[in-house]
């Protein structure tokens, strides 16, 4: 089957499989370009218009990937225009945030619902209680502050009286908590990570022997957790 350049760009009732594949790769490449152009804000979907852009671009591109009669050129133009419009609106949102996106709204304060704010955020009591249960909060009286963010996520601050006792309050020594660090991966010591923590091979050998391992090559993953314990997996 012969395919003209015009049919490849603007679509046809039937096009070869290789042409469909190439059109898909081109559209996907433009999606990647658009995502990089819109930067981290779009990936995180921090505002309503960011969500609309993500959903719109993906759906429009998908249609053109599977339907040979659709125009490849039109798909590329739509992706570029969507990305440009999103960047422009995001710029306005940074300069004049209240004109584009919603503000954070307080739903519960000191255990009491704020009825007007619930209506303004279009959130029902069942929605709110469900979100609280996800956070292991089963009573409104335990909530000091509940805020719905512009993203729709509900953040909660519990009352101090309901929080567990901390090591500081019990006057226990404070443990140093940091990011977990890989020390051994696939039988190889990550020497840079080991040195950055101030340890040497002798310390690591002693630690893995305590875990019942004699050789580094027998270990698939050894990771120093944030609380100072060594996790080892063969």
From TrEMBL:
The chain crosses the membrane at residues 15-34, 46-66, 72-94. Keywords: Cell membrane, Membrane, Transmembrane, Transmembrane helix. Belongs to the UPF0702 family. Pfam families: DUF421. It comes from the Bacteria. Residues 98-224 form the YetF C-terminal domain. It is found in: Cell membrane. The keyword Membrane applies. InterPro entries: DUF421 (IPR007353), UPF0702_alpha/beta_dom_sf (IPR023090). It comes from Anaeromonas frigoriresistens. It is a multi-pass membrane protein. Its main location: membrane. The keyword Cell membrane applies. This is DUF421 domain-containing protein. GO terms for cellular component: plasma membrane.
